[in-house]
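Technical note accompanying the year-one report. For the benefit of new consortium partners, we illustrate the data format agreed upon in the data management plan: each record pairs a sequence with a structure-token string. No post-processing was applied to the example shown here.
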Amino acid sequence: MSFLQKTMKGAKIGHFKNTENSPSVVMPIPQEVCISMSQHMGPPCKPVVAKGDTVKVGTLVGDSDAFLSAPIHSSVSGTVKEISEIVVANGSKCQVVVIAADGEQTVDENVKPPVVETHADFVKAIKNSGLVGLGGAGFPTHIKMNPKNLDAVDTLVINAAECEPYITSDYRTMLERTQDILDGIAAIKKFIGVKQVKIGIENNKPKAIELLKKETANDPSVEVCSLPSLYPKGAEKVTIFETTGRVVKEGMLPADAGVILDNVTSVAFIGQYLRTGMPLVTKCLTVDGDAIAEPKNVVVPIGTRYADVIAFCGGYKKPAKKLIMGGPMMGILVYSDSYPVLKNNNALLAFSSERAIIEPESPCIRCGRCMNTCPYQLQPRQIELAAQNDNIEMLNRLKVMLCMECGCCSYVCPAKRNLTFSNKLAKQKVRAASAKK
């Protein structure tokens, strides 16, 4: 048994699940949406519509021939106002399709339930739906459902941990769309051929655990696993280990360990899509933070600008210093509330200057907390030093590429060192060195 199998550590952080008892509400259709062509891992899509085109809900507006991609559909009916560019969170630019909504929400004639009889049909349907990982990663789901070693995959692990503070959108999915989850599980079992299903939920969600245990009580192949509330229980390798005991080693994919891992809202969408044929055009996200007047869970058309979402939540009750797409631990800072909602958006957090304090770094005191908290037992301080010295060999020996950038090391550091960012830069250096070779 490896050291990883003996223990899986993490950080004890505040949950701040302020909206857990807030049923998701549907936001009115905005006047226009701004649909990004970069909504998944891999190359962005290219627009397949032009200025002046009429589109409907579910109309294909972006597509790509690249392997690692997923098509993009219109979330509203209306007219293409323009094809332009926006600056995304990492500073690069991407194309967007701006659509002026007519308010009618007319559904495209091509939207119909897919005919699925085989595994190949299932994979094709999932691709056509535009589904990507809705937990935040954005990995195209149809690729995940078509592993090279399909016969060796025997387990579906459903990530319902939702371990990031503030976010409750997956929790609301479990309470409000239980049948969709069950239908998605049934489809995956049928067409992928998995023999067992593990649903991993942090134990700070007792209502969800009780409900899903009740609904799956007559299916011995499904087990609802109550996980300790210790961040980051929702990380891919962590969830798989905690529910199955299997270790996904460095360089391995979950399928190499006989597992397909999918987010609970992604599974619910599969159940919904096979029944309705409506592609991924809406997203439920948690809107919270001390700068938001009325925190809530909101179902919005993909491409809705953050400013419109926040206005629906009562606007700002104090000036926002930071806007975060996702959770406070692994989310991405965005530069403006004109940024649009993406497929893998599960939260929008707005914090005032009182909560968005960046404390100054001080010298490392060699306490070892970063190493003792890391789920993979990495050595963040040593990685930081190796990166500063451009010691690629040492970075590889320290297994920096295993780092999932969960933020635990920075969170527990008493010297307030930004170790997570150092790890991220170190990984970039390793990739650059590898590319040169």
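Partners are asked to follow this layout when depositing records. Residues 419-436 form the longest helix (18 residues).
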